Structure to design on (505 residues):
């Protein structure tokens, strides 16, 4: 039994105009992601990895190539199966982003609504799906806060009163409450204390496993890639220089840049 | 008898781009085939490439040329050309590896680390933990250590966690990189018994055993890696 592709990327690229000249932030990126697979995208800052993530999540449009996603039928008269994101309506993309996808921002503040309570942040996506029963919304919010190890006594507090690690866990709960099949993560652990980072990584690893999530995780931290992802993609100057099984890429890097990257890591 | 893992003209050379493309030949032209119930011991002085060969067999190192084939779900699969998800699947269901060092995941208990391969095969949490407990008991790891992450364990304790983790799912092909190096005599004997049991169940085993007594006890034949190293040198010269 061959599982079907969830996300199919072909020669995708994005150019920004700089002093009248187009400059490719990323180009010629191709890969297929299957359900339950976690892919890490690594590279130094400016390598184009965050731009790539935005292309995949349809937050930016491709200037070259395409991104196809395996749509779930949400009503009978709508297309399902692999569809080019460029062909989807704004409304359909918004629907995807709210239900079947998650997007975990590096700065939790960018992914949370800071002016509503923690509990409301978790419930919001459910409300977008039409859930209105207050008691049910609240109990779903409670159960997700517990799952990401947040103190439910704090659910009526504003996220601004949470610590950085708590905000990040709240953002994860907010994203996962609709049971997405694909989650995009942009440096999810960067900027957190090491102990907080370890706890968050462990939590992510468990959730990804348990929910059989597919994920694309942008990170510059190779240890994060090793812990979370089965496969990885190494970017330099907007292009993929090497990709493959995570432990193969890290333990036997082939490309000069990957070798440099791996040999530059300090191991405590 | 059926072969479960084989290589053809397998070669490995490291290219160090940071050193001006320096070539480090490890071995060349290895043909091997290991059948169900066999235990092939790799021999050769340290640095001769035994561990590199095991890593190639596990898909952890990319061969420079040649192929590694493994029998997975009834068919031969070319491990060197398989997609990452296929390698993950082969490792989940068919191929086990006991490395010299344990890669510790922060916060995860020893019992859960050992139970994990069974969990990935769909075994329920309680059942997986119970079997994990039996393995740890068999390997004489004190019960008070089970709830702890193994980061602070001694070398010998970590090695036994590693063995239990690598063998609990009874993989058809088992790679062992000095599984007894840091163990005392009693525990070495336990590991020898476990290897015998795996062979009796029809596993194909490839291992590195520095301890001669252990090697003599478990190996059905040996392969001297150094002969392939000489070949590499000639090719490089």
């Amino acid at each position: 039994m061959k599982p079907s592709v969830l996300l199919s990327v072909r020669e995708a690229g994005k150019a920004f105009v700089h002093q009248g000249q187009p400059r490719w932030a990323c180009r010629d990126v191709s890969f297929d992601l299957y359900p339950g697979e976690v892919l890490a995208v690594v590279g130094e800052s400016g390598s184009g990895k965050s731009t790539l993530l935005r292309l995949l999540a349809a937050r930016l449009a491709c200037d070259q190539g395409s991104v196809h996603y395996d749509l779930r039928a949400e009503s009978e008269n709508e297309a399902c199966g692999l569809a080019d994101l460029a062909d989807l309506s704004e409304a359909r993309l918004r629907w995807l982003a709210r239900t079947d996808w998650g997007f975990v921002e590096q700065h939790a503040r960018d992914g949370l609504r800071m002016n509503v309570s923690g509990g409301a942040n978790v419930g919001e996506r459910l409300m977008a799906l039409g859930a209105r029963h207050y008691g049910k919304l609240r109990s779903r919010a409670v159960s997700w806060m517990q799952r990401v190890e947040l103190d439910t006594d704090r659910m009526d507090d504003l996220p601004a009163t949470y610590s950085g690690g708590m905000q990040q866990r709240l953002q994860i709960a907010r994203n996962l409450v609709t049971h997405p099949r694909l989650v995009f993560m942009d440096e999810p652990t960067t900027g957190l204390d090491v102990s907080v980072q370890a706890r968050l990584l462990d939590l992510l690893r468990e959730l990804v496993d348990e929910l059989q999530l597919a994920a694309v995780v942008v990170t510059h931290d190779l240890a994060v890639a090793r812990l979370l992802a089965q496969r990885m993609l190494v970017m330099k100057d907007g292009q993929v220089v090497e990709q493959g099984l995570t432990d193969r890429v890290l333990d036997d890097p082939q490309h000069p840049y990957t070798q440099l990257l791996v040999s530059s890591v300090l191991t405590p | 008898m059926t072969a479960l893992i084989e290589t053809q003209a397998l070669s490995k050379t490291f290219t160090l781009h940071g050193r001006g493309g320096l070539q480090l030949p490890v071995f060349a032209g290895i043909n091997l085939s290991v059948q169900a119930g066999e235990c092939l011991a790799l021999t050769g002085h340290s640095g001769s490439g035994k561990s590199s060969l095991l890593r190639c067999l596990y898909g952890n190192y990319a061969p420079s040329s040649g192929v590694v084939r493994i029998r997975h779900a009834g068919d031969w699969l070319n491990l060197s050309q398989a997609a990452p998800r296929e390698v993950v699947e082969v490792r989940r269901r068919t191929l086990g590896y006991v490395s010299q060092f344990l890669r510790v995941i922060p916060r995860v208990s020893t019992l859960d680390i050992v139970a994990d391969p069974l969990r990935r095969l769909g075994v329920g949490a309680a059942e997986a933990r119970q079997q994990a407990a039996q393995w740890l008991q068999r390997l004489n790891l004190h019960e008070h250590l089970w709830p702890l992450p193994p980061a602070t364990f001694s070398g010998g304790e970590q090695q036994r966690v590693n063995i239990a983790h690598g063998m609990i799912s009874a993989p058809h092909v088992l790679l062992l990189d000095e599984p007894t190096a840091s163990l005392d005599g009693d525990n070495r004997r336990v590991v020898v018994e476990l290897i015998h049991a795996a062979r009796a169940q029809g596993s194909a085993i490839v291992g590195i055993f520095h301890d001669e007594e252990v090697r003599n006890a478990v190996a059905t034949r040996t392969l001297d890696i150094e002969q392939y190293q000489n070949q590499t040198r000639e090719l490089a010269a």
Summary: The two ends of chain A are 43 Å apart (CA to CA).
